[in-house]
Specification:
Structural class: mainly alpha
Helix content: 40-55%
Radius of gyration: 14 Å
Distance between the termini: 40 Å
CATH architecture: Orthogonal Bundle
Order of helices and strands: HEHHEEH
Number of strands: 3
Shape: globular
CATH class: Mainly Alpha
CATH topology: Multidrug-efflux Transporter Regulator, Chain: A, Domain 2
C-alpha cells in the first residue's frame, strides 16, 4: 500500500455494531438504549446517535467509531 492509501483509510469512518460498543463502554444493551431514549431518566444527549444500517427503523444499527471514542473520552474527563 502506498502512503496515500493509508491516508485514505485513516479518514474513512468506521461503523461499530452494538456489541462492540457494549464491549468498549462496558455498558449493557439496556443501559445503552436508556442513554439513547429521550424518555428515560438516564438519557444522555451527548451519547452518539445510532445510524440505521439497513435504512429502516427496526433494522440493524451501528455507531460511528470516532463519536463513540469521543464520548468515552468525555466520560473519563468528567
Amino acid at each position: 500500500m502506498s502512503q496515500s492509501d493509508f491516508i485514505a483509510l485513516a479518514v474513512i469512518p468506521c461503523v461499530l455494531r452494538l456489541k462492540v460498543v457494549m464491549r468498549r463502554t462496558g455498558l449493557s444493551r439496556s443501559s445503552l438504549y436508556s442513554l439513547m431514549d429521550p424518555n428515560s431518566k438516564y438519557f444522555d444527549p451527548s451519547f452518539p446517535k445510532r445510524i440505521y444500517l439497513t435504512g429502516r427503523i427496526g433494522g440493524a444499527i451501528g455507531f460511528i467509531e470516532s463519536e463513540v471514542s469521543q464520548w468515552i473520552e468525555s466520560r473519563i474527563t468528567a
